[in-house]
Amino acid sequence: MSERADMAEPRPDELPVDGKTADQAESRHDEDDRLRPDFVSAVLDAVEDGDRDLARDLVSPLHPADIADLLELTPSDRRGEVAAALGDLVGAEVLSELNDYVRDDLLDALEPQQVADFAAELDTDDAVAMIEDMEAADQQAVLDALDPEDRAAIESALSYPEESAGRLMQRDLVAVPEHMTVGQVIDYLRDNRDLTTDFWEIFVVDEAHKPIGTCQLSWILTCPRSIAMADVMKREQTLIPVDMDQEEVALRFQKYALISAAVVDASGRLVGMITVDDIVHIIAEEAGEDILRLSGAGEGDINQPILEAVRTRLSWLVVNLGTAVLAASVVGFFQETISKYVVLAVLMPIVSGMGGNAGTQTMAVAVRALATNQLTSSNTLRQIVREFRIASANGTALGILIGIAVGLIYGNPDLGLVIAIAMLINNLVAGLAGILVPVTLDRFNIDPAVSSAVFVTTLTDVMGFFSFLGLATVWGL
Amino acid sequence: MSERADMAEPRPDELPVDGKTADQAESRHDEDDRLRPDFVSAVLDAVEDGDRDLARDLVSPLHPADIADLLELTPSDRRGEVAAALGDLVGAEVLSELNDYVRDDLLDALEPQQVADFAAELDTDDAVAMIEDMEAADQQAVLDALDPEDRAAIESALSYPEESAGRLMQRDLVAVPEHMTVGQVIDYLRDNRDLTTDFWEIFVVDEAHKPIGTCQLSWILTCPRSIAMADVMKREQTLIPVDMDQEEVALRFQKYALISAAVVDASGRLVGMITVDDIVHIIAEEAGEDILRLSGAGEGDINQPILEAVRTRLSWLVVNLGTAVLAASVVGFFQETISKYVVLAVLMPIVSGMGGNAGTQTMAVAVRALATNQLTSSNTLRQIVREFRIASANGTALGILIGIAVGLIYGNPDLGLVIAIAMLINNLVAGLAGILVPVTLDRFNIDPAVSSAVFVTTLTDVMGFFSFLGLATVWGL
């Protein structure tokens, strides 16, 4: 509804700017801010026709993030050609916005000197992200092509573990001693033109360069010049150890609503700064990847080369094939019962399947709660009890439902009772496994999103078949 | 590894501050920044013993976000008591950090005037988040208890749709005309002490109060006083329509790496500002909720009342029960075949189950790619082809594997061939359904995360049974 309202008139973020009309702007994006397919085709056609000027005219009004999107939407075998046609429109900023796979693909076609030129334009963290996945030899060639200062900064970042704060931080920041006044800080900023201009907070440090406070720029701007930084800054601050994992960094930014944070080395000295705009995509990635891991899709990136995707998914499927064979062997024990009463074969997948569904629900809740630090050892027991109660309620309801239906349809109350009890049992197994498995894996520092599903679905399959066919055998059906 | 290194010495973010020793600080948090269970117990015990002073001493050094965590970790029947004992330590900021369910629970016990006092302390967006889920009558009582200015601001926010930009924005912002110089802006900020002090950018507006540019505070601080705002500001800006859905807002903040953004009404006038710290938790929520929706766990919040959780999950399970019965009825058609060769009943769950696994992989990838705007109509066809190729590879590999194993184990090459072909067919069905279902739902503006799983698993169950048992029947096994 609201989207329709947007479309009736030019979207405010595409009102005439720089002489472009709203209509021209409107035609590039759909209402969800995605590039329109006909716009993408128009660019690709222009490139194919060799009309470089038209292609550049079409693309030049785009934000670098949109140019990155355009390259991602281009079929992989044409990306090099399109990037070449667009020339300097595909700058360092576009590269840093690109999906990792797409970027690596494009960089492979460039000379080390060209990559180095791009890297030199970027903040350290973006330059590092650009070259950290290159082959060692290619990476070294790029580093060699950099000027010594940039090279030193990037090499220092690369010395920290992958996905650590040291790789995310930038070294350009503003740090001042606490005795400086607001006026002196402003003068210092005005006089030092080679300082970064992209910062949101100023760090106040002691003589050993250890952070003792943080000051939002708005506080400086709203204070008289005579006030000392010591009286403006906030002393409580969240410092990020340089070797902290990026997932942990992201959680702290979220929890404490940080805009930027000081990064400190083992001795507590200020060595860099992380800003929230570099964290936002990590927050989204970390929160979004659980679904991919839980389903065994690995990274699940649509730009991942097919062979790599096949390898990741197949290895997971083969593990599942093993557990499916295990579950089937349970059925094998009861062949005699089934051959006497084939309807059991018809009904057994219902019991195992419903257990799988219920287990997946609980597992998803537990995996998310663990990832967001909501489920901790302080409330684990309470949550297990909670899941058991939910499973009892659901199992009872589903058992009654299927029991009555089966009893009536097959005119066999005993069969109804057996499937009802089996359904309840398997729901309880599912509920308990759904929370116990992820919690246990987490205790052993194994990512519950990656490994929980195998255990839980194996348990619900095995117990589904065993409880139903076992009860049926004992009951003498 | 890195965490162990942290623990060997005081964590940098808990170095002595305000006279607290590192040891005391250390004992409150574990290495993942979660409150330690023994710390939580110590607080609960102190409250139980009526030792309010000890409880307050323990809690007072905590950040509001940690006090919120403490209340969440407290069993629900003791939260009111603990909050009462902590008194003013549970302030407005703590309430705004609390999980929605936990907060609503606590607010229910308060008088409207008390809630109004909390609301008055908060930014509009946080106050709105606090009272938007209250019963209409309770909400009105709180509004009546507010002073007219706060009431007007909150009522205006509540007039926008739930989860829209209008509810997220704050009205306190700094907007200046473009002819002002940097010096004049600084003087204006220093002279107007009732302006907000929490802002990161200044908006430049025209006479009609429409935003024409945005200026980072760092640019103002690094410029001479004489420069006009028109020459410092950036004219390209992402404006947020006031009725835009919060998910869309979150995507724009991510895509364009925004720290804050101007919110405009239908006529393009500046009406508010959204800052990234209010968006960060939405980004995490939106990215994380797909896994919960796909598994049918609804909101999947561990603080959700049990009855509500049962209702949500059960309704999904009942739908799945229907589809399971449908799939079982396919098996029903082949009872005669099964009764002749019971091994088919043993093997059939393998074929359907593996299809379900493969379908879930593809579906997870597609749902994420749709949610992140990576999968658009420009590349849908390409992705369908990609998934088909992956499914062919995986289906062939799995078919050969299970075919040979079954052929050998049962000494029946025909049975091996039948299960191999059925496995390939079901993997192709899974791969195609895994992408076609979410893409189709998305086209019809139905959330693919909510509804895809039912369709995909029904298809893989039905086709798994049908292809395997059907082939076995035709083959005359």
TrEMBL record, chains A, B:
Main location group: membrane
Molecular-function GO terms, alphabetical: magnesium ion transmembrane transporter activity; metal ion binding
Pfam families, alphabetized: CBS (PF00571), MgtE (PF01769), MgtE_N (PF03448)
SUPFAM superfamilies: CBS-domain pair, MgtE membrane domain-like, MgtE N-terminal domain-like
Subcellular location per the Swiss-Prot or TrEMBL entry: Cell membrane; Membrane
One GO cellular component term: plasma membrane
Disordered: annotated span: 1-37
Residues passing through the membrane, by range: 314-335, 341-367, 388-411, 417-441, 453-475
Keyword Heme: no
Domain CBS: 233-291
Membrane topology: Multi-pass membrane protein
Keyword field: CBS domain, Cell membrane, Magnesium, Membrane, Metal-binding, Transmembrane, Transmembrane helix, Transport
Compositionally biased spans, kind Basic and acidic residues: 1-14, 20-37
Domain of life: Bacteria
Binding partners and assembly: Homodimer.
Function in brief: Acts as a magnesium transporter.
Protein family: Belongs to the SLC41A transporter family.
Protein name from the UniProt record: Magnesium transporter MgtE
Gene source species: Sphingobium herbicidovorans (strain ATCC 700291 / DSM 11019 / CCUG 56400 / KCTC 2939 / LMG 18315 / NBRC 16415 / MH)
